[in-house]
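Question (not urgent): is this output format expected?
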Amino acid sequence: MKIRNMMTRKVRTVAADATLEDAARIMRDEDVGLLPVYEGTTLAGVVTDRDLVVRGMAPGLDPRNTRVWAVMTWGAQTGRGDWSPEEAAAAMERQRVTRLVVVGSGGALEGVLSLSDLWAARSRVTHHVAAEVAGVVARERAVLHA
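Got this back:
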């Protein structure tokens, strides 16, 4: 099985110069926690619901006037649709992320793969892989915030 068969294909994006409020509304409307961020036609990075709260709201930035580029993570962690779940999970583990932006050979956005997608594949291999990545990411976050 390839991750293109597991990932979410219908993915909304946001411009780097959009406001935090704009990004939050898209996340709410689409029920997602991550948006790929574009500068023109170039994938610049990602913004997560956590970025909006921790880097935006907690320091008191005004969501109506603050731009996504101020809180986003620059340089999206990407994967390829023809990767196996194991390859994707290894990349997630190395990069300490729980979601990968999936791009095609020309760099065009194809979708987003999350740990939930790996888990939903319902195979023993993907369950093991998803659990391993989740454990690594959780341990890393615990160390960073201790």
